[in-house]
């Protein structure tokens, strides 16, 4: 249970209920970070708009490269919600989620391509504290993906760092998106906040 409980549907205003309905239709459940963020509606709209725009704008990289880098970031930061949701997103993209078991061995595992290894190493370097990205690493990524691809990869890894750190701070943990049928998790119980 998160440190701040989510806003139940019955206590949500009309626009929040509509956003819950949209999320439920899209994901099969309302993501718990969204219900927690609903306590601050202007930030909820900022969050939702930002996520949709970032998703639409991020089309330069191969989807496997982008999704694996984001997933790796979630794993490194220990965000069980992000790992759960990220696995579900990869499953819905038709990606091989079995290889996620080898994510900690990406550097030597034959299950990852050269491009994926570069992106995963970059995710590690960006997620280190302090950040350990090198000039050589960025130059190699630029040769592989171009400047637009490097910017997209950097942005997505940075965005996942933000998501994972927010979820960890608020103790928002896995919601069960990958257990059984992906995305069949109910809205938070209608309990008073």
From TrEMBL:
SUPFAM superfamilies on file: AhpD-like
A Pfam family per the record: CMD
GO molecular function: peroxiredoxin activity
Domain of life, source organism: Bacteria
Carboxymuconolactone decarboxylase-like domain location: 54-124
Name of the protein in question: Transposase
Origin species: Prauserella flavalba
């Amino acid at each position: 249970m998160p440190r701040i409980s989510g806003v139940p549907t019955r206590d949500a205003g009309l626009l929040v209920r509509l956003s819950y309905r949209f999320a439920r239709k899209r994901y099969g459940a309302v993501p718990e970070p969204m219900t927690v963020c609903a306590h601050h509606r202007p930030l909820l709209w900022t969050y939702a708009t930002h996520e949709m725009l970032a998703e639409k704008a991020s089309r330069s990289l191969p989807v496997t490269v982008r999704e694996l880098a984001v997933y790796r970031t979630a794993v490194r930061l220990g965000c069980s919600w992000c790992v759960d949701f990220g696995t579900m997103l990869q499953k819905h993209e038709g990606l091989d989620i079995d290889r996620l078991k080898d994510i900690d061995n990406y550097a030597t595992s034959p299950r990852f391509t050269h491009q994926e290894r570069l992106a995963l190493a970059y995710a590690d370097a960006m997620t280190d504290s302090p950040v350990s990205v090198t000039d050589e690493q960025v130059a190699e990524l630029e040769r592989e993906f171009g400047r637009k691809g490097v910017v997209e990869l950097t942005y997505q890894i940075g965005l996942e760092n933000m998501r994972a750190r927010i979820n960890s701070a608020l103790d928002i943990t896995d919601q069960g998106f990958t257990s059984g049928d992906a995305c069949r998790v109910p809205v938070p119980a209608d309990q008073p906040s």
